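Technical note accompanying the year-one report. For the benefit of new consortium partners, we illustrate the data format agreed upon in the data management plan: each record pairs a sequence with a C-alpha cell string. No post-processing was applied to the example shown here.
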Amino acid sequence: MSLALNIVAASYATWRLHRSGAINWTAFRTLIPASLPAAFAGGAVILPERLYAVSTAALLLVAALLMVVRGEADHVEDRHVAKIWMALAGLAVGFLSGLTGIGGGVFLTSLLIALGWLAPRRAAALAAPFILANSVFGLAGVLYAGQSIPSTFIVYAPAVVIGAIVGTAIGLRWLSQAPTRLILAGILTVACVRPLAL
C-alpha cells in the first residue's frame, strides 16, 4: 500500500514544486531511465518479513545519519555530475525503492546530499517526481508478483493528500537548507522504527 500512497502524495508535490520552479529536471532526466526498470525489479523481489523489516530500518537509519553529518551540503550549488554516475545512482536508488516500498525519495535525497551534488532543498524537491515515477514502476512490480493494493488504501489516501499539501507549502515558504536537512533526518529516524514494530 505504501507505493500507492506514495503515488498520491508525490503527484501533488510534483505539480506544486514544478509550478514554483524548484525541480532540477535535467538531473531527473539523467536519473530516471535506469531507475524505473530497477524499481520494477525491486518490487518483484519479495523478502522474508523479518529480513525486510531489518533491512528497511537499517537503510533508513543510514540515510538519516548522512543527513546529519553532511552539514556542508547546505552551501553547495547544483553541480555538474557525469551522466554515468547519475545513472548509477538512479539504478541503485530505484532498486531500493521497489524493494522496500518506500518510493526512493529518502534514499535519493540522502545520496545527493551526502555526495554534495545538490543542496538539501534542491535534493528534496527532486525527490517528489523521482518518488512518483519509481512508485508507479515499483507498484507495477508488486502487482506483477501477485500482490494487491489493500482496501484500506481509500481510508489513508485523503490524509496523505492533506499531508502533501501542508508539507509542500512549508518546504517552499519557510524552510531554509539546514532545517530542511535536519527535519528530513528526524523523519527518517522515526521512520526506521516503524518496520521493526510491524
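Partners are asked to follow this layout when depositing records. The mean pLDDT is 80.
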